[in-house]
Design goal:
Elements: H1 7-22, H2 25-31, E1 37-42, E2 47-52, E3 59-62, E4 72-76, H3 78-85, H4 91-96, E5 101-104, H5 106-110, H6 122-129, H7 194-216, H8 232-239, E6 248-250, H9 255-261, H10 265-272, E7 296-299, H11 308-311
Parallel strand pairs: 1-4, 6-7
Antiparallel strand pairs: 1-2, 2-3, 4-5
Helix pairs in contact: 1-6, 7-8, 7-9, 8-9
Length: 316
């Protein structure tokens, strides 16, 4: 919930604050020489503040025409901004937990934080001047959230596995393992029709394009997302011809594989949004989404690379 009444009040308060900041020699001297344009996008009021320190005189402006260049973008709510100026926000932690979605030259922007230290004392003064002393009142009661451990196994629908559908490993770890006959497998599956393959490919493409837009808008709780756009035919051709009893362990671009294997689209999308209704209750996310009910063991970020120098071979 925004601490400000509307967009106009947000603009008025922050404009007054930045007027004071740029009139403070201690701040201006510390940012002198830096060449950076920072865009603060406020998602609740659909407005953007640009801070430009590329010229001789630092300046700010609101909602320029679309396409105005910037070096780094900070996507947040007005409440998060208020907590920042009240010194109640751990910026690196906020970025890690996606309370602030940062894009671009983030490290360069973070180096400017020490320069803003004198500005924190100005914010309460501005609030009092604007008649919003109520925002300075500290909350006396805070609800403590009860922490609970997440179990991947044991809860139906939350990463649990259908052991009846997945056969036991064909070579048990025993002395007689070489003489063990693999268990009876599920019957062969009818090949997927061209129409079904095409439909699945279109489904994967639409799914991934939605995620691309959502990530750009800062709506997904992830620092990075690896899409499988352009790889739909591989996923559909391979995974649609697997049996339910076949295991699947995919890599960092595995959304298409999991969809083609038969995962519930709504639950999978909920997982990527970090929701309780997701396949792993929102704990796995894009990189580690799992659906044991159809034999999907999960995804991982391991990418192999051959290094000829370490292996002693001469590169070609």
């Amino acid at each position: 919930m925004s601490p400000y009444g509307d967009r106009d009040e947000l603009v008025a308060i922050l404009s007054a604050l930045w007027d004071e900041i740029f009139a403070t020699p201690a701040v201006v001297e510390k940012v002198a020489g830096e060449k950076l344009v920072v865009k603060f996008r406020y998602t609740d009021f659909k407005t953007a503040l640009f801070i430009d320190i590329t010229g001789d005189t630092p300046r700010y402006y609101w909602d320029p025409e679309e396409g105005t260049p910037f070096d780094v973008e900070m996507i947040q709510t007005s409440e998060t901004s208020h907590k920042f100026w009240m010194e109640q926000l751990n910026v690196p932690m906020a970025i890690a937990t996606r309370k602030v979605v940062a894009k671009g030259s983030v490290q360069k922007a973070l180096k400017l934080l020490p320069a803003l230290k004198p500005a924190f004392a100005l914010y309460p003064v501005i609030l009092e001047r604007m008649g919003r002393e109520d925002l300075l009142e500290e909350k006396t009661t805070k609800k403590k959230k009860k922490r609970r451990a997440f179990r991947l196994f044991g809860r139906k629908g939350a990463g649990s596995y259908d052991l009846e559908a997945i056969p036991s490993f064909p070579l048990p770890l025993s002395e007689s393992s070489l003489q063990t006959t693999p268990p009876e497998q599920a019957p062969e599956k009818e090949p997927a029709s061209p129409t079904d393959l095409l439909k699945t490919m279109y489904t994967i493409r639409a799914f991934e394009e939605h995620l691309a837009r959502a990530f750009q808008e800062g709506e997904l709780p992830t620092e990075a997302i690896h899409l499988s756009i352009g790889q739909e035919s591989v996923a559909a051709g391979l995974c649609m011809n697997l049996r339910k009893s076949d295991y699947l362990n995919t890599t960092h671009r595995g959304h298409g594989h999991i969809i083609a294997k038969g995962a519930d689209l709504k639950k999978m999308m909920a997982e990527l949004y970090g929701k309780e209704s997701g396949l792993c209750r929102g704990k796995g996310g894009s990189m580690h989404v799992t659906d044991g009910s159809i034999g999907v063991l999960g995804a991982n970020g391991i990418v192999g690379r051959f290094n000829p120098f370490r292996s002693g071979q001469t590169p070609r």
